[in-house]
Amino acid sequence: MTWLKGNSKEIKMSDKKPSGLEDVVVAQSSICFIDGKRGQLVYRGYDIDDLAENASFEEVAYLLWNGRLPSQSELDGLKADLGAAMHFPKHLLELLKELPFDASPMRVLSLATAALGILDPDADDMSPAANRKKAIHLMAQLPIITCAWHHIRNGTLMPSPKPEKSLAYNFLWLLNALEPDDYAVDTFDAALILHADHELNASTFSARVTAATLSDLHSAVTSAIGTLKGPLHGGANEAVMQMLQEIGEVENVPHYMETLRAEKKKVMGFGHRVYKAKDPRAVILERMSEELGKRAGDTKWFEMTRAVEAIFQPTVAEKGIFPNVDFYSASAYQVMGIPRDLFTPIFACSRVVGWTAHLLEQYANNRLFRPSSDYVGEKGLKYAPISQR
Ligand code: COA
Question: What residues does 11 pair with on adjacent strands?
C-alpha cells in the first residue's frame, strides 16, 4: 500500500493507482467554491443563481478579480477601461489575414493571445497593477478577436465596437453586424457569468501551472486556451451541437441514442468530474434556452436537447452522471445565430476572467507545481550502437 501526499491531505492508494489528480488539493483559493453533491457553485461567496439573475458580466469580473462587488464608480471605471481596450491591434489584424480561412477559431485565439503578449510593451511587467491591466485588456480583446476572425474568414466587414455598451452586447453586435435584441443580450451576459469560473478546472489549472514558473500572464492564458480546446473540456459544447445537427429532428432522437448506446459512445454534455448532481449552470441555461427558442420561434434545438436528456438521464443517474454546462448552452447559442465552432471561443471569452483572477491569486502567493509520477518503465538498459539494434 502506498500513499500520495497532496498539499493538505493524504490520499490512500491501494488497488487503484490515482490518475487525473482527482481529490488532490493543490492550492488554497478564495475565488470559487463548488459543492458537487448538492450542485452548488459560488463565486467569492455569492451563489451563481443570484449573480446570473442580478449581476452583469462586468460586475462579476470585478468581483472575481477583487474579491468584492464594485461600487457604482468602480464599475464605471472598469467599463471605461474595457471600452478603451475594445480595439484591434493593426499588426494582429495583418497576421490573422495571413492564416488559412479554415483554421480552427480556438487555434486562432491561442495564436492571437500569444501575439497580444508580443505586442504589449508591459507583457513582462509582473507587478499586480500591470497584471490587472492585462486582465482587463484580454477580457475586452478576446471577444473582438473571435468576431474579427469570423469576419476575416467570411470576407465580411466587422462593424466598430460600441465602447459604451456591455461586452455581451458588443459580442452579438460585432458578430452579426445587427442590433441585438435585449433578451438575447441578457441571456448572453448570463451565459458569460455562468462560464466565468469553475475552481481548478483543467484550463485554470494549466494557467496556474504556467504562472507558477513565473511566466507572464499572456503565456498562462495561452496555455489555458489550449487546454480549454479539448472535447472533454470546453470543446464539449461544440460536440453537443454536432450531435444535435446529426440527429436533425426530434423524432430521430430515440434511434440516435440507441446507436450511441450500442457503440458505447459518450453522450457529450453529460457527466462531470465534480458534479454528481445536475450542474447548476445547466439548470439556468435550460430555462434560458427554452425561452430564447420560444421568442425566436425556433424551439427544435431545445426540444431535441430535452429529448436526449429524457432518454439518457434515467440510464446514468445512478452513476451520478447529469447534464453539465455545455448541454443547454449549445441550443441557446444556436438560436442566437452563433456558428458552432465559435462556442468554445465564447467559453474562453468568459473564462478569461476566471483564469486571470486565479493568475492574480497565484502570483500573489506563488509555489511551483511539480507533481511526481509512478515510474513503471524499464531500468538498467545499456545503450547499443544503432547498427546493433
Ligand atoms: N456519457 C456516457 N457515459 C459517461 C459519460 C457520458 N457523457 N460521462 C461519464 N460516463 C461514464 C464513463 O463511461 C465511465 O463509465 P465506467 O465507469 O462504466 O467506465 C464513468 O461514467 C466515469 O467516467 P469518466 O470519464 O472516467 O469520469 P471523469 O470524471 O473522468 O469524466 C468527463 C468527466 C466530463 C470527462 C466525462 O463525464 C465526459 O467525458 N463527458 C462528456 C464530455 C463533456 O460533456 N465534457 C464537458 C465537461 S463540463
Answer: 4
Cβ(292)–Cβ(336) below 8 Å: yes
Ligand 1 centre to CA of 266 (Å) is 7
Residue labelled with grid coordinates 445587427: 178
Helix (H) or strand (E) holding 3: strand 2-5
Report helix angle 217-228 to 128-154, nearest 10.
50
The helix-helix angle for 128-154 and 90-97 (nearest 10°) equals 40
> What is the C-alpha separation between 335 and 201, in angstroms, rounded?
28
Residue nearest to atom 8 of ligand 1 (CA): 271
Residue nearest atom 20 of ligand 1, based on CA coordinates: 319
Q: Which helix (H) or strand (E) holds 33?
A: strand 32-35
Q: Are strands 32-35 and 46-47 parallel, antiparallel or unpaired?
A: unpaired
Among 266, 268, 276, 313, say which to mutate for ligand 1: greatest number of ligand atoms within 8 Å of CB: 266
SS3 call for 47: strand
Of all atoms in ligand 1, which is nearest to the CA of residue 279? Answer: 48
Q: What is the pLDDT of residues 196-207, one digit of tens each?
A: 999 999 999 999
326 ligand 1 Cβ < 6 A = yes
Per-residue pLDDT at 15? 54
| Residue carrying the nine cell digits 464605471 | 76
Whole-model pTM: value is 0.91
The atom number, within ligand 1, closest to the CA of 264 reads 2
Using the predicted structure, report yes or no on whether residue 6 has a pLDDT greater than 90.
no
- Of 187, 83, 188, 222, the closest CA to residue 141 belongs to 83
CA distance 213 to 220: 10
Percent of the chain with pLDDT over 90: 87
Provide CB contacts within 8 A for 244, sequence distance 6+. 301, 304, 305, 330, 331, 334
Instruction: Tell me the backbone φ, ψ of residue 21, rounded to 5 degrees.
Output: 55, 20
Look up cell 491569486; give the residue: 361
258/371 Cα distance (integer angstroms):
41
Any ligand 1 atom below 6 A from CB of 198: no
